[in-house]
Amino acid sequence: MELKNKIEAILFLAEKPIEIKGLQMFFEKTKNEILKILKELKKEKLKTGINIKLEKYNVEMITNPKCGEVILNFFNKKEKPKKLTKASLETLAIIAYNQPVTKLVIENIRGVKVDKTLSTLEERELIRVCGKKETIGSPNLYEVTEEFLSYMEINEINELPKYNEVKNGKS
Fold it and tell me: Which residue has the higher pLDDT, 61 or 83?
């Protein structure tokens, strides 16, 4: 059986994220060999109901966020998925186009406090803290996640329309 299939089976049965290092050690492969396989799996799964969530140290199999509504409807017909508010969408756009970005920069652009919005976006795993800015107070730096990319139905951040295209109505 092909190594990629074995890794896929492990990810399918795992109840929590798998450490990439653990896969390396178990299969006696280099980090680059394992990452190559994981990236291939991720690419293969993009258009399916299952995605591969590949982070710096961990990997896991997750449902495709695009299937969220149908999954919710199947398992809980009464509850409708919450749509993003205008404030959330504006904040997401600011983060996506300026990442990594601090809360202060987001607030300066939006002109309002964004504490609650950032908290909601983090809970929905559309954004994450990706580091600290090396300045007084060491504020968090935010970036969008793979869930954001799935929500936007794109594969990479560079697939977002350019600001000037949107501003001029070309997109």
Answer: 61
Question: What global pTM score does this model have?
Answer: 0.57
**Contact criterion met (CB below 8 Å) for 74 and 83:** no
> Which CATH number among 1.50.10.10, 1.20.120.530, 3.40.50.720, 1.10.10.10 corresponds to the domain 3-66?
1.10.10.10
Our CA angle for 156, 19, 65, nearest 5°, is: 40
CATH architecture of 86-167: Orthogonal Bundle (1.10)
What pLDDT, on the 0 to 100 scale, is given for residue 80?
46
